[in-house]
Amino acid sequence: MKEYTHGGRPVTAVNLLLLLSEMEGVYQHLKYMGFDEDMDTIDKMKKRYYTLYFKKNKEENTPL
Fold first, then answer.
1. pLDDT tens, residue order, the chain (64 aa)
2. Which pTM was predicted?
3. 8 Å CB contact between 11 and 53
4. CB 31 within 8 A of CB 23
5. Distance CA 56, CA 29 (A)
């Protein structure tokens, strides 16, 4: 159950993709409802997490 507490989920490439998938869905809902300012906010957040995802993915897939 530790994974479901604050800070309990590890920051891995897979978990970041799960987060990004949810954020993409929120972005689409905002778009369809016309909430442009909130779309911009989510877009900025997505950029941050995509950057982190690519960094983590590279780290996790680099041979030791």
1. 888 898 899 999 999 999 999 999 999 999 999 999 999 999 999 999 999 999 999 999 887 6
2. 0.87
3. no
4. no
5. 28
